[in-house]
Amino acid sequence: MADNSSSCIFCKIARGEIPASLVAETDTALAMMDIQPVNPGHVLVIPKSHAAYLADVDAKIGCDIFQLAMRVAAGLRNSEVRCEGVNFYLADGKVAGQEVFHVHLHVIPRFEGDGFGLRYSPKYGEHPAREELAKIAGSIKGAMVKGGS
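Above: the chain sequence. Below: its structure as tokens.
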């Protein structure tokens, strides 16, 4: 995998080369305002080190990102930002909607009538047979990286 950190916009922000409105920072992660927010208060939490995809993120750094996002969510709920709920969203790969290829976890404040939401496939209401779920679970379990449970 090529290291694209020299041209990556989020790496440039993490290095202080490009300005950003920072919310919080740890040794391994930072939280900043999204410049194209879904709602006011939309924050991105990123690893400081370059990682294009979730599989590229060290497990400890992944924990740090999520913990920082939890702190941001609590801050949103206690701030002046209109926030009746919070969504976390992470797109991993182009077909998942990833546009910037540096892992980033969206922390999105939500409120009644904000117009944001997920669209489901036409088959969403169908319940697969337990055997099919067990088969898929076994396939995923067998393919998981060691260290998981």
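The chain is about 25% helix and 15% strand.
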